[in-house]
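Box 3.1 — From sequence to structure: Toprim domain-containing protein
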Amino acid sequence: TALSLETLKELGHASRSRRITMALDNDAAGQSAVKKACEVLFPKLLAAQIDVHVACLPEGLKDPSDLITSATSEEEALKSFRTVMATAKPWTEWYGDQVGKTLDPQNPTSFSRCTDLITSMMALVSAPTDRTHLAYQFAKVLGMNNVNRQMQLERDLLTQADLKFNKEERHKRSRGDSFPARETHARSLPQSLPPIQQKDMSAYSKGWQESR
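Predicted structure (token representation):
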């Protein structure tokens, strides 16, 4: 399944809501294509303010067209289609689920591989605020419902993604490539945090200092 950034941008700009819902084949090849798009293409759409969701087909259906052909009536087909579209997940949530399935929290190599994939993907995002948002979302996946661990991971993911982003910007500069004005993160703790972070900020700060 071939996807290009240009095609996705055209689709997003053609949509009044600037939302794209991906519904690829439910087999290994289709799911692999979506996963690859999450790692390479979708992060680059954030700057264009294009929202991407991933539709999950019901178990047993291989192709989106099966929603239509397996229905006994036009009304049933339409209902099935609307249900799949309504339950489509934001691409970050879908990708987080895929990463979570392969993560062995007791295996350092598995954990390192997952964080490397995530931070490499985050490094494709040019806006620091978007990288912050992604760090928060993926820290929840890797944190395994441990609030203090989530906070530590959020900062670590953001730091590693920033390092990779700035390294690539330096490479562009050395090659003479054009690149956007450099945007850097303020390294101080954010002033406005979700309630879950405000509650445990003291524990987070202590854990962060001890880890250093």
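Summary of the box: The first helix runs from residue 5 to 14.
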